[in-house]
């Protein structure tokens, strides 16, 4: 996410990137603009591909299964800020705008909902690790600088996976924040609340 500012640390939540209602769209650009900054994205690749093993397993697919992927670089004030790879089961996204390189009017999350696959729950895992050589080059990282990796699974109303996202971002000047509802009727639990901050520009088209 582009993030709002708390002191010197941009802070945001995942919730706006999962919303599919009116006003949903380029959440990355909107959040950056709210902070007086400029958020853009470049679609590096979109189309059918073999699912990485982790993605295939998470989506409940066989190893090497075909999926639709959208790979993007997210920029904040012209600086590469995040690598975002999104994967959809083939039966959901094949032949739709999700498989094309054009920006999606209203955003990918909204289109997914219009196709009858609205997300109702998300699971996120965050880990720190060293980047690959490709990630270091794409994000213009210093030698020895680590990255944060956020892996998100979005589930539909029937509990079936509809989308998987892998986001990689530098941790400098970033804060992760989760807000978790407690008690009956909140619809959230550990790891499924709104959050984390910075770096989750998924579903923006």
- β-strand number: 8
CA distance, first residue to last residue: 14 Å
Largest sheet: 6 strands, antiparallel
Strand content: 25-35%
Number of helices: 6
Chain-averaged pLDDT: 81
Q: Helices and strands, in N-to-C order?
A: EEHHEHEEHHEHEE
State the shape.
Answer: globular
**Strand line-up of the largest beta sheet:** 3-4-5-8-7-6
Give the low-confidence spans: 1-12, 188-204
Helix percent band = 10-25%
Radius of gyration: 16 Å
Given helix and strand content, the structural type is alpha+beta
What do these coordinates show?
This protein is of the alpha+beta class and 205 residues long. Helix content is 17%, strand content 33%. The strands form 2 sheets. The chain has a 6-stranded antiparallel β-sheet with strand order 3-4-5-8-7-6. The protein has a two-stranded antiparallel ribbon with strand order 1-2. Strand 7 (147-155) and strand 8 (161-169) form a beta hairpin. The longest helix is centred in the first third of the chain and has 8 residues, at 27-34. The two termini are 14 Å apart.
């Amino acid at each position: 996410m582009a993030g709002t500012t708390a002191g010197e640390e941009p802070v945001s939540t995942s919730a706006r990137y999962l919303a599919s209602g009116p006003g949903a769209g380029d959440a990355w650009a909107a959040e950056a603009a709210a902070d007086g900054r400029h958020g853009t994205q470049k679609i590096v690749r979109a189309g059918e591909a073999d699912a990485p093993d982790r993605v295939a397993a998470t989506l409940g697919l066989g190893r090497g299964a075909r999926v639709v992927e959208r790979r993007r670089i997210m920029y904040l004030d012209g600086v590469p800020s995040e690598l975002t790879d999104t994967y959809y089961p083939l039966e959901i996204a094949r032949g739709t705008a999700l498989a094309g390189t054009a920006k999606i009017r209203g955003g990918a999350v909204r289109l997914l909902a219009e196709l009858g696959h609205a997300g109702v729950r998300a699971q996120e895992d965050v880990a720190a690790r060293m980047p690959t050589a490709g990630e270091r080059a794409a994000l213009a990282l210093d030698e020895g600088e680590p990255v944060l990796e956020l892996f998100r699974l979005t589930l539909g109303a029937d509990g079936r996976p509809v989308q998987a996202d892998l986001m990689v971002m530098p941790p400098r000047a970033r804060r992760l924040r989760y807000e978790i509802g407690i008690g009956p009727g909140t619809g959230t639990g550990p790891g499924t609340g709104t959050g984390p901050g910075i770096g989750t520009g998924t579903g923006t088209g």
